[in-house]
Amino acid sequence: MLCENMKLYRLILIIILTACLLSCKENRTDYFSEDSTYGLILSLSEELYKGDGSWGAGYPYRMALRDSYWRADVYGELAEKSDTYAIRSSEVYSYLVSTQNEGEVGVLSFPADVNNPEFGEIVSRVIAECPECINRGWVISLPGDDIAELYYDHGYALTSLAKGYLRTNNPIYLNSVKSAADWALDKPIIQNINYLSALAKGFAYAFRASGDIRYLNRAIYLHEQGIFQGMSLETGGALDSHNQKLEYHGFIVSGIVALKSALPANHEYHSKVDQFMTLSISHMQQRNLFESGNYGVTWPGINLLTWYELEQLRELTSDELMARNRCIELINSYKESIASENNFRLQKSLYSNFFIGLYEE
Which of 34, 75, 147, 287 meets the CB 3.0–4.6 Å disulfide criterion with 39? Predict the structure, then answer.
């Protein structure tokens, strides 16, 4: 009887939220055009929404947390403009907390779904080689250095939850932030510096949310011993070819900006961070103006988020504004292509370009 009542309660809740979203439609057009690229992306996203903070309705696999937390980063920023966005962001934060609780060890991971095209191959291998690495439908660990495959989603989901706490002061989010940060404290440094950057960004935001100095120290350590070691003092880009890709460079710059924002005013590490932030931002700015941006690349979205985060720290220069605006122009040019997508390509196109919403008038 209790189970049936819970199902009925959830159904009623979904109906109420759906009605609220529909009733907010007229208000929503006050701050974005339904004919805009973001209007299209938002509309297509709503068609995939499952009503619980996750996306993937109609898909034959469970989507990764990135389909949720990237959207939450936009919804949270726009929450004051509409109850619609406030509802969506809170649903995502609650979903992230629930996945963490299901995994039971603190990690914010990816679902153990062999059919997911992004990580199904990893899940298949884990099922065969490390069945204890899966708990209640979530991958909670990986053997050896393979643990780094969890850094990306964990770091950015941690960041999203910390942002959620900073906006709402919800203690449930703070508890989740602490649990996630504690899980990552002893994880090893690996060669892939954009994975390290995901963790470091999460630690920087966890420090801002909790005030726990261990998290700030770990963010500094990951930069000092890992990320900065893998960056060129001449170009400001990564030394390895993989992380020289512009989308990964955007992740790395985003992590540096997050650390800069978290450092106390008189902290001794400011000068080192300033050095690499200046170099890496200049590198991103120059490439944003001239790099090929044909539809299918993902760098304009993540670079746009990075410009937005930098704007919360300081005013952009004229050259930086030109670079930021090219990211916006490129995403706007993808509108027809996005509209014609389906299946996995539609899924990735939506979450990769969702950051255009941060600059929708």
Answer: 34
